[in-house]
């Protein structure tokens, strides 16, 4: 099925294109065109952007806002975020006129049962990410048929070979920035006069939860400050396929 088939005909047929079909059609598309195609195929009420409001997030959110600033944005407020990240979220909401940002928090029952002392990040960071990010995202994504995120191949590791469109537990997952370079990100920031994350100037090139984020030196990978000293490199929301 053509990736640019009309939203109406796709819904009438009762099926969406497969991830493989869409990836083939969009592998060389611009981020704007990837997001616009996702919106056309799925519709706003079934499409969400997931954003951490981290150091590079404004670029994706800017492109999304150019397509449709009312696309729902899911923000995982883990309870361990920097105050600067929360302030940055509010700054970007105003700057980009985002009209449907949903701040999702962990379930209180899960925190009481599994992290009553708020020290799970130290003893079992995978479990901490599960109850504070993976499970809340699973709940938040239930109404949606597809979601968009900001991973890039240049980030390396498990992200080095990501497709533009993936299958994710019965949902389509769009990676519109898969092909962009670091220079492309900088260009979006500069052309749109986007503010930087408040912690970036202090050496935080990738910002997640406060206990598991540290500064990086100029000769390190940008994500080297995440879970420093541990083999862990991802929070788990992109590894779980049964959301």
Q: What does this entry show, briefly?
A:
This protein has helices spanning 7-13, 19-26, 31-42, 57-67, 83-96, 108-114, 120-123, 125-140, 182-192, and strands spanning 47-50, 73-76, 101-104, 146-148, 165-168, 171-174. It is of the alpha/beta class and 243 residues long.
Outline the secondary-structure elements.
Elements: H1 7-13, H2 19-26, H3 31-42, E1 47-50, H4 57-67, E2 73-76, H5 83-96, E3 101-104, H6 108-114, H7 120-123, H8 125-140, E4 146-148, E5 165-168, E6 171-174, H9 182-192
Parallel strand pairs: 1-2, 1-4, 2-3, 4-6
Antiparallel strand pairs: 5-6
The level-1 CATH class: Alpha Beta
Annotated CATH architecture: 3-Layer(aba) Sandwich
Q: What fold name stands as the CATH topology?
A: Rossmann fold
The number of domains is 1
Q: What does this entry look like structurally?
A:
With 243 residues, the chain is of the alpha/beta class. The chain has one domain: Rossmann fold (3-Layer(aba) Sandwich). 37% of the residues lie in helices and 9% in strands. It has a six-stranded mixed beta sheet with strand order 3-2-1-4-6-5, sandwiched between helices. Helix 5 links the parallel strand 2 and strand 3. Helix 3 crosses helix 4. The N terminus is likely disordered.
